[in-house]
Amino acid sequence: MTFTKLTLTTDGPIARIWLDQPDTRNAFDDVVIAELTQAFAEAGAMANVKAIVLGANGPAFCAGANLHWMRRMADYSRDENIADAGKLAEMLRVMAECPKPTIARVQGDVYAGGMGLVAACDMAVSVDTAWYCLSEVKIGLIPATISPYVIRAMGTRAAQRYFLTAERFTAAEAHRIGFVHEVVAADALDAKVDELLKALLGASPAAVRAGKQLIADVAGRDIDAALIAHTVEGIADIRASEEGRVGVQAFLQKRKPSWLEAKA
Description:
Blueprint: E1 6-11, E2 14-19, H1 30-45, E3 51-56, E4 60-62, H2 67-73, H3 78-96, E5 102-106, E6 109-111, H4 113-120, E7 123-127, E8 131-133, H5 147-154, H6 156-165, E9 168-170, H7 171-176, E10 182-184, H8 189-201, H9 205-218, H10 225-240, H11 242-252, H12 258-261
């Protein structure tokens, strides 16, 4: 796919997806949604890629929906709105279920649907000057499609405030409620992202992929016999896997595992 509103680049094991519409504060429309869906699908399928960074050019990370797109949607029928929202939901699903670990590199403000982009990533690093806002109720809407990811990221109690008040909140507050993992000065943003990337690249790719799936399988479920059996099978399967056997032997023999030796 040829991208017109974002860029996808790779540098060794790192893929970087950049929102690239600074003049519109990286607001998204149906084209951006299609391109983000494809970019994450492509990067997630690249055998050499071990981690993906989502970033943005310009002063804002993402201002939510593009105004021109909103004007078009104002005349949509309910069926057209369902089809349109379904594409956004599919984009978020592809991002959240990407087999590679994902990091949101937040260099500026995040509003409305942009909150979904950050929440759908596994990790988020924010500059300390960024503002966050779930602004939908101010214009008579609700953050419905992004809600599963945003509530998972910030928790129900915080959502009960910010979904309903549409207050802006600081990066420090985003960190306090767990929406972002790290808050740093602008000149330290890339260093912190690189720190996370280094940690990810030091891990077994197969274990990272299985770890992502484990979280999806376990989070929010009752701890019952079925869940316990699932986790027992999970550790048995990973112990018997190629990278599991190699990794444990490398640890016991005090040497680098194969996925690190390949980098040397």
